[in-house]
Amino acid sequence: MSGDERYSIGELARRTGLSVKTIRYYADSGIVPPTDRSSAGYRVFDAEAVARLELVRTLRDLGVDLAAIRRVVEREVPLHEVAATHAEALAAQIRVLRLRQAVLTVAARRGAGPAEVDELHRLAQLTARERGHLVDDFLASVFTDDWKTYPGVIVSMTPELPDDPSTEQVQAWVELAELCRDPTFRTSMRRLARQHSADNDVPGLPRPDAVAIVREEVAGALAAGIDPTGDEAGPVVAAVTRRYARLHGLAEDADLRQRLLDRLVLANDPRRDRYLDLLSVINGWSGGGAVAPAVDWFVRALRSRMPLEARSQPNQVIA
What we know:
This protein is mostly helical.
């Protein structure tokens, strides 16, 4: 494109893909004024006007308003300042859109009614302070007197939604917030916390509780697809009971097996795994912390080796 070339509005339209009406509007408004007029009185534009029009088109495609564009092309404000301002505005819009997408996705997945959609939207819109209050109240209800005893555990259970969360993180937060407000889940988690505390109420360093022992010892059996009621499961059951008895200074007898069963039935709550999965999404941690499959396998294995009256107890969450 040479510097002395001239273009009509029609030629500009073919070059830029803009309509003649749009280019005429830009010309009439002074954003891209014509360079000259032809002998017949038609507007013509030079190479500088073409470059200016292409800049206007790009900025409009990026969502910059005409008032800001005029200030840029008239060099009242640097382009980078306008770009920064609009980038910030777009970031805010994107955050709002992600929030809306997350709420609508959860609502669609559940087949939610109006009241539930309204509640999901409210939870998604909580401020950082409000989210903190909700989680603190949940954890305080879970750990009660042990709130100061296990600071590391409490930190590891605290969600920290980032300032610019993804749609998946917002979805995870909404579901986790509902769990935190569920009174039956609070009761279940509080009893799990007390169980963990009781298993460590012995001299010496902290030691694995029943769930941790089962998770470690049962992993191989799960991977191998061993039937928990079959003969191959016997050595696994023996390994768990022996290790638990030794760590806690207890006799390896029927009372110990009943103690184990009581603890593991309580721990066999899939909502606990779900909370940890959601926590991993929100905090950007790696997953893989599920314990329910191992606990369920061992409960079945242990029950099949206990007296009929013990094994007949229902395997359900104690609320």
